[in-house]
Amino acid sequence: xxxxxxxxxxxxxxxxxxxxxxxxxxxxxxxTQGGNTQTEDEDNIIFLDNxxxxxxxxxxxxxxxxxxxxxxxxxxxxxxxIALYLKMKYGxxxxxxxxxxxxxxxxxYRYNYHLIDDEHKSAxxxxxxxxxxxxxxxxxxRFAKKVDYFCFWNIYDFELLKKYVKTHxxxxxxxxxxxxxxxxSYSIKNNNDSExxxxxxxxxxxxxxxxxxxxxxxxxDPERKLKLLIPLSYGEDYVIKEVEDxxxxxxxxxxxxxxxLRADVYFKLMxxxxxxxxxxxxxxxxxxxxxxxKNGTKVFxxxxxxxxxxxxxxxxxxFSFERDLNRLEDLTTPLSFEDQRNNFYKIQELxxxxxxxxxxxxxxx
Length: 365
Known about the structure:
- The structure is a single chain.
- By secondary structure, the chain is of the alpha/beta class.
- It has two domains: 2-174, Rossmann fold, CATH 3.40.50; 181-350, Glycogen Phosphorylase B (Rossmann fold).
- Helices cover 44% and strands 15% of the residues.
- The protein is built from 16 helices and 13 strands.
- The chain has a seven-stranded parallel beta sheet with strand order 3-2-1-4-5-6-7, sandwiched between helices.
- α1 links the parallel β1 and β2.
- α3 runs parallel beside α6 and α4 packs across α6 (127-146).
- 37% of the residues are buried.
């Protein structure tokens, strides 16, 4: 039996689906946040909003033949604690189903890893978080050391982990299921100034540096020709307020998305976007970027975001926010037909069904 510690019901469907497709009836899925309290447990899904060592008995009682592995998604403090307990008791393997924040936030608070542009502001906002994360660092370090498999699609994040923490983990290619939303069609973007839509970030994440991006857009677009799309449907409330205030103070033509949208509705909205700018200094928003490249969208990433290196290594045309975004024309000039087509096929190659199937069929071996 394999135990999956899933963090959020909103994103669990694709993660459950991919394992049931390739390894059916071998797993028990525990959803620890966002489960509807009225929802009854299904045969292989348990909702436990307060997962701890004691409530874990509800799970282990179902594993009469033992536990072969524990899959830890978005490794929170409790998930790390539970995984280490299960490894000690059952000798099972730990699969770290990597998301990103669980590594980068620890590096930020422990080693001052560069994530926030306004460090003075962040110091006051995150003092308590800093103390908490430093306190929890020994458990994170122990967890990373005991992990058997680091499961993700960006090997540069695995290399980053190894720079700061000793681990005997092996890398396994895993996509969190978002490759399955690709199809064989793509559309060519031909930008028109009056219709140009620029998307800024993908959420109200604390490390999205929204204001840094918006300030640059204000500088290069004094006549406010740009139409902005700013998703804020999940993340931090103070980030939403900060963006709202900046948009109002600078009279920006911006659509703020604060309601959570179904994936198909959101990605249809993204298909209208001409330019996508990600303000984070870290890897995040991978599914959004995948759809952006598929749609022929022009993408700008921060210089120190390792996704810039990953995509350039793969031959994808992607731009640096710091070096390549200096004039309005840098936004209004679309990718060439050849670059758009190349990006589509390169992103398909990076997350091809053949590659996904090959990795998933051998995932448990």
